[in-house]
Amino acid sequence: MTLARVLWLQGFPDQALSCAKANIDDAVAIDHALSLCNALANAACPVALLVGDLAAAEHYTKLLLLRTERDAFDIWRAFGNCFEGDLHVRRGSLAAGLQQSKSGIDVLRRARFSQYLTSFLGRLAEGQAAAGDAMQAAATIDEAIRRNEDSEERWCTPELLRIKGAVVLQTETDGAAALAAEDFLESIRLARSQEAVAWELRTATSLGRLWFDQGRIGQAYELISAVYSRFREGYKTDDLRAANSLLSELSRHR
Predict the structure, then answer these.
(1) Whole-angstrom Cα distance, residue 184 to residue 205?
(2) Which of 20, 119, 159, 182 is the 20 to 30 A CA-CA neighbour of 141?
(3) How far apart are alpha carbons 178 and 205 in whole angstroms?
């Protein structure tokens, strides 16, 4: 499970998804409910969502919700609700998705189960921002960052900082662009120190869009292309497609 997530962070999304699938196949083969729910909640569902394979994410999430209903694994069911809520948000059903995500997060809060909670809060903040509620999104991402610091979890700190920058940008207040750029640059710095090239690419794309809007075409292109060129697989995944699309647009304006 850990290997699948680490492979994604290191820039091997295809291998990460393949590893997660192998975990599920093994857990199904031995017909051990707890092993299966662990493999689904801690690898298959989150990796499929990180890669952007929504069909696989839906399949794994439905399997997780089915098994947790039958075997009464409340924590893993809360995970399933968070994953399914995220799926709804990504597919445009914001109200239903945000409500389901909040429900799952509330269960984890009450149980004081911190594993993956900061990541769920980050996704919730993105959904709230997409729904136009920048104030609530700011409160949610601030909570995620506080919890991340208190628990010393830190594996997703670069992503939380990227989301914070995106939320700040949405406020459209004076100085928002400068503040967002600070968050993006700190995210990239930390991602590089962790050798988490997947987080680095996401934030480079976000910062590149900001620089594009500011007319800093050359800098944006160099930033994104330097990270994108380090990948050797996963070109059909969401993050690489987004980066490549922006690179193409930047090239037309150089």
Answers:
(1) 10
(2) 20
(3) 16
> Which amino acid is located at 5 in the chain?
R
Residues 227 and 201 sit within 8 Å (Cβ to Cβ): yes
Whether 187 and 203 have beta carbons less than 8 Å apart is answered as: yes
The C-alpha atoms of residue 19 and residue 233 are separated, in whole angstroms, by 15
Q: Give the count of beta carbons closer than 10 Å to the beta carbon of residue 96.
A: 13
- Choose among 4, 5, 1, 10: nearest CA to 231: 10
Q: What is the pLDDT of residues 209-252, one digit of tens each?
A: 999 999 999 999 999 999 999 999 999 999 999 999 999 999 99
pTM of the model: 0.95
* The CATH number fitting domain 2-114+181-253, selected from 3.30.450, 3.40.1000, 2.60.120, 1.25.40: 1.25.40
At 74, the amino acid letter reads: D
Look-up of token digits 């952007």: 52
In order of 41, 89, 122, 176, 247, the CA distances from 125 in angstroms are: 20, 11, 5, 17, 27
- Whether residue 72 is predicted with pLDDT greater than 80 in this model: the reply is no
- CA dist., res. 15 & res. 36, Å (int): 20
